[in-house]
User: Which sequence fits this backbone?
């Protein structure tokens, strides 16, 4: 079996030192976003129907993992400073779950419909908002943090992969678009 491999590594050191890499291997997608100043690290890995996404921020120490194996979705949010740990697990289709912590105002929603995934993470004091929406062969992810003003969007259409991180305060924007063939 021959894999069609597309490597598109991009290293762009800016003021906030953002490094983003997008790797696609047929149905295996790996995306990493690393920012050293605010120390954000996010990895998106898809292998067939296995999606894994990790968001790690060392300053505020947020760690989130989204793992999907076939129709099994598992998402974990761990914050060490405020010491919050949340886990969402969906094994069938058409599950809707919401976690809300009022003290630090964290709100996370995972909605899965047949081939339609929607995830929203909202934290108000630090104002982090992340949305993951996937339609049939269409993946869209948005990460928005207002004080530091980081916004990242991942849009995947059939054989089309696009990731855009946007930081408004320091006005940095990067975009990767890959076409399979």
Assistant:
């Amino acid at each position: 079996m021959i894999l069609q491999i597309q490597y598109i590594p991009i290293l762009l050191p800016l003021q906030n030192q953002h490094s983003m890499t997008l790797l696609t291997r047929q149905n295996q997608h790996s995306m990493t976003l690393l920012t050293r100043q605010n120390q954000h690290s996010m990895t998106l890995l898809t292998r067939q129907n296995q999606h894994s996404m990790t968001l790690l921020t060392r300053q505020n120490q947020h760690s989130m993992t989204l793992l999907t194996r076939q129709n099994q979705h598992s998402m974990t949010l761990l914050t060490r400073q405020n010491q919050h740990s949340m886990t969402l697990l969906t094994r069938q289709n058409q599950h809707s779950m919401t976690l809300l912590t009022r003290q630090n105002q964290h709100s996370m929603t995972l909605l899965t419909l047949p081939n339609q995934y929607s995830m929203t993470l909202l934290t108000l004091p630090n104002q982090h908002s992340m949305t993951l929406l996937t339609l049939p062969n269409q993946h869209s992810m948005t990460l928005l943090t207002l004080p530091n003003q980081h916004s990242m969007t991942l849009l995947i259409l059939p054989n089309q992969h696009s990731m855009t991180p946007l930081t408004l305060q320091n006005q940095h924007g990067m975009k990767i678009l890959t076409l399979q063939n």
User: Anything to note?
Assistant: The chain has a mean pLDDT of 37. Residues 25 and 149 are 32 Å apart (CA to CA). The chain has one domain: 5-179.
